[in-house]
Known about the structure:
The structure holds two protein chains of two kinds.
Chain A: E1 7-13, H1 19-25, H2 31-37, E2 38-42, H3 51-55, E3 62-68, E4 71-73, H4 74-86, E5 87-93, H5 95-99, H6 111-121, E6 136-139, E7 142-145, E8 149-154, E9 164-166, H7 173-184, E10 194-195, H8 203-206, H9 253-256, H10 274-283, H11 291-299, H12 304-308
Parallel strand pairs in A: 1-2, 1-3, 3-5, 5-9, 9-10
Antiparallel strand pairs in A: 4-8, 6-7
Chain B: E1 2-6, E2 17-22, E3 28-34, H1 41-44, H2 50-56, H3 65-80, H4 86-118, H5 129-136, H6 138-159, E4 168-169, E5 172-173, H7 179-208, H8 211-219, E6 227-232, E7 244-248, E8 254-258, H9 263-266, E9 267-270, E10 279-282, E11 299-300, H10 303-309, H11 316-328, H12 340-360, E12 379-386, E13 389-397, E14 403-409, H13 411-414, H14 416-430, H15 439-450, E15 469-474, E16 480-486
Parallel strand pairs in B: 6-11
Antiparallel strand pairs in B: 1-2, 2-3, 4-5, 6-7, 7-8, 9-10, 12-13, 13-14, 15-16
Amino acid sequence: MEEKPKIKLAVYWGAACGGCCVSVLDVHESLFTVVEHADIIFWPIALDFKYKDVEAMPDGHIDVTLFNGAVRNSENEHMARLLRKKTKVLVAYGSCAHMGGIPGLANFTNKEGIFNRAYISSESTLNADKVFPQQHFVVPEGTLELPEFYNDVRTLDQVVNVDYYLPGCPPQTERLVEVFMAIVTGATLPPVGSVVGALDKSQCDECKRKKTDNKLVKEFKRPWQIIDDGETCFLEQGVICMGPATRGGCGVRCIEGNAPCRGCYGPPADVSDPGAKMMSAIATMIDSNDPGEIEKIIETIEDPAGTFYRFSLPGSMLRRKQL
Amino acid sequence: MKQYTIDPITRLEGHGKVEIFCTDDGDVENVYFQVPELRGFEKFLEGRPVEEASQIVTKICGVCPGCHHMAAGKATDAVFGVRPTPTAVKLRELFYMAHFVHSHIAHFYALAAPDFVVGPTAPAAERNVLGVIAKVGIEIGTEVLKQRRIAQEIQALLGGHQTHVVMNTPGGVRKGLTEEQRKDILEKAKGFVEFAKFSLKIFNDVVLANKTYVDIILNGPYNLKIYSMGLVDENNKVNFYDGKVRVVDPEGKEHCKYAPEDYLNWVEERVESYSYLKYPYLKQIGWKGFVEGKDSGVYHATPLSRLNAADGMATPLAQEHYEIMYKTLGGKPVHATLAMHWARLVELLYAAERAVELARDKEITSPDIQAKLPNLPKEGVGIVEAQRGTLTHHYWTDERGIITKANIIVGTTNNNAAISMSLKKAAQGLIKKGVTVDEGILNMVEMAFRAYDPCFSCATHSLPGNMPLEVIFRDSKGNITRQVKRK
């Protein structure tokens, strides 16, 4: 067999949890297939290469970078710009890079709110002098630097141009392997800007739970207020499930675990905003024509914004809560 | 003044940076460990329904999401004032043992082993898990990947999601276990016990049989005499899922033993201007600065501190190895930072044995997985041992169960002061007048950090550029089916 040159791969995290890196790790024994096709040349969680090694690379040196995590601070932004310069194909990998993810819930508050809670009002914290972390702090030996903590969480494509989006929290490993193999075997890639490694249609298309045409409800319920039969569509049981506003491709994994979907794969191909889609889905479920009663039914949905935009606030039409 | 910057520190989960300041002569003046990020979970949990917390907080860490899920699940139980059914507790604990198995395997083989098996000052490009596999052989490497995969599969089955588990509800779990699944897990758990024993043997053969390494562990600059924290059961044995938090002083004497809801009496945190991560310390002792000893409130919460804080292990084989460890290292408590790696393997064996016990228990397949919720939600604390330290979640809600406040003390955060001190001590011991500070020396400084932090780094993602390695795949008859060559 003719030996093809290996691709150079980098994996980096911004404001992330490491779960995306775990999803790469979960190729398990297929590791050796990956090794056949790629050299990983930067991956802080696993490899002893440092920032200076990336800075020393010529522009476009890296074939593919999987960038996971949102842009929360100046270090995330600096690395996003640096890796964009050094990379031919930049992939926003996972919900946080794609739409802001769970760290994006911080856009319901702001830097001041977060700092006050963490460093001042926290019940376990003693901080009478109101010390906050500083970007530049002078110690007897010199100056210590910290990245700037931004007021807003941003998605990767709000900072640099992104070639592809691979959604999920984290992306399903099988989808990653499919995309990876397509790249290394030289398959024709979809147009730049596409979502890859996911379906075009919604979760509901994949979901095995029983659905009837009757989704009408007089009240929305919290998951612990019903006895889930494990078989019936959550929405038909009155429980908010983000399935209709969420792209398929994960294997309906949470629903298989009897937990309603929370939307980590982002909106389906024909939907631009998950919250707007969910509002319209819910509007069709309300079993009333009386404006007063409709309002009451809607009020039974707890934390609609935090639920409909659980993974997508920074990348949504809203982007943040105005404070 | 010379300055060395290690940025980022690698083979760990998360971001970190070390600044080493030296005099013109080359001696270390001071060392600062900085954590450059903050995400603010405590703040943005406010306004969320409390039952969603256990799924939101898994995103604090994708390496130990199960720990946050369990601490949050227990805090949520407490918010509702409900005790989960016995079957639900057993299912949670079984999941949790698989979580420990996966994490401890990954940490030992991918994170710790490169420094010992390949060598602390080996070239950076080889100092990773593929380097380990090249030394110990592909068969062992494949077995490592396999056992970790099995642990992940058990978690996916019980947890509903391979990484960001969704199993907990207030007072229960979402999904039961069938008899067939129970039997399957039992067989797999027995495999974990064998693998844990094997791992302890490797540690014995590679590390303990090497005088240089034993000398580094016992007499190197990796030693910190501070308090030890860990969760214990009613017999003061190590427990990961439930119990009271026990703290012993540097001599091994009990300082306190507190129930989760009392944590605010015993632990307090301070803020430094140069790091986004806070510094917890023992409240009754107080913060006396980055100093060791009984009069300083600095403690650690690690596999080693858990063993130090307990009177033993609750399963027989783990107890045997617990005794061997303390006998070899000169009695309790042990303050050798690198002994954390050994303690982690003793814990791996305990998690495996405990998984067998739970999978043998027929009650675990009962359909009774959800307790009734009799009370209005209010306030609750949940504590578990995460792989990297005691993990505390505390939520306050309104009467509808919407979170009004949240306070979290995360595993690694406990160790922030201790890690800073260990790094400084290692740097002072290694970087001196006349010593050429190369990448190998700086890696040995990083070793002080790595011992604390069980990063998941597993074989599968250590794929450096230039390491010579040949992997040969054979079928059951010994025929070569595939060959992978790296030059």
